[in-house]
Amino acid sequence: xxxxxxxxxxxxxxxxxxxxxxxxxxxxxxxxxxxxxxxxxxxxxxxxxxxxxxxxxxxxxxxxxxxxxxxxxxxxxxxxxxxxxxxxxxxxxxxxxxxxxxxxxxxxxxxxxxxxxxxxxxxxxxxxxxxxxxxxxxxxxxxxxxxxxxxxxxxxxxxxxxxxxxxxxxxxxxxxxxxxxxxxxxxxxxxxxxxxxxxxxxxxxxxxxxxxxxxxxxxxxxxxxxxxxxxxxxxxxxxxxxxxxxxxxxxxxxxxxxxxxxxxxxxxxxxxxxxxxxxxxxxxxxxxxxxxxxxxxxxxxxxxxxxxxxxxxxxxxxxxxxxxxxxxxxxxxxxxxxxxxxxxxxxxxxxxxxxxxxxxxxxxxxxxxxxxxxxxxxxxxxxxxxxxxxxxxxxxxxxxxxxxxxxxxxxxxxxxxxxxxxxxxxxxxxxxxxxxxxxxxxxxxxxxxxxxxxxxxxxxxxxxxxxxxxxxxxxxxxxxxxxxxxxxxxxxxxxxxxxxxxxxxxxxxxxxxxxxxxxxxxxxxxxxxxxxxxxxxxxxxxxxxxxxxx
Length: 550
Prior knowledge:
The protein is mainly α. The chain is 46% helix and 11% strand. It is built from 19 helices and 12 strands.
């Protein structure tokens, strides 16, 4: 698959400017005598004041995302260079550039119409006849120039003839897909998880999830709907920004920005009503400011926007709700999800750990820096500016939410991967972040006993990947499993991003591990590729994992 990051994106502008500010003045200022005794609120006030000049300079470099005719033409031209009817790779690259051209072209413009027409040719060459007809319709609706109408008519006739062929591909197919269900009885108050899971707390592990019964590899233990999700930037012109389905052949653009694309008018409308209205005008600049390395934090902005919409876009109502919230009594494992309101569900996200007390002063300064910029952009470019114009308490609430959920998302957001077959090899790639209050309760291990898998309807399932004894803790993997990276790399990454030192079985070993694969596992993987049915292969994998022992 060809993804947008292959085109190249600018580095994080905000990170560079903050590093310069840190080296030139902040480091000496923060490490001065008495600074370590400040409370977080005092530190925030002082650092925000110190950062004001550079934040002002940075916001001057930013501008509202607008459609760009020249860029639309340039992307389409690049797509034409890659287009080759017999090359799958060439068609994939051409498609990505045509989608970028559609995103940058103005509504009703000739540039957008031509890009739709070109995309219809990719569909025809790929024998995706229904999608071809969709693009022909979109091209006509976008004031397609008369000189192209004869080509479109011939292409339309060819696509209709293609649909009459036996076994023709009429769209995206999902063969051999069985809806996942929990492996045991569901919890009485939490129907999205099995009844044998309990939330415990102790000094060693903090809060953690334990099973009260023996579990087998392959058992489905949770199936949770995320509160908020956000696509990686490099798949933004391949997947629907709302439902995240892989509909790159029929995506339509948001008319307010060049970033978001959707598979239908329905998804576009839902996204705008639920969150996009608060991020549309600044989403492109967020990528410039934060870069890919701060994706987790950016997912927090989506959470903030989603939460505001839950309160009918009324910050006063949201403020009253949060002021009256007793966070100590909010527990996703004991709440009755059968009667929970969307606001109740948000509460379980709002109380997730920020790790504020464990962060270094430099990291706190960096998060305040980003939160302040995002706060200013929201006030300047969205309707929140008018809402907060005469209300200092609402302005403060908005800033506090941005900073809080930036931190929560960095340590709680889950990376969702999808596996695809590339040249007879299974390859996993990350495509979105998800905020889930139940699954976030799982602790990390570099040798996990569960894994999370995405479902087609947007939910996320947790599956045991090896037998788990009764009374044993469930462990997910936050970043790299022991097979992927050596111990020192894992420890550095986990300490930097999650503020803890991992003491799992792999990290407790004195030897540097990682990067190995057992011949037996390699042979097993080659063996299961011969199965025609996915369900047969899955059954064999589950049997193998349970037979292999703990």
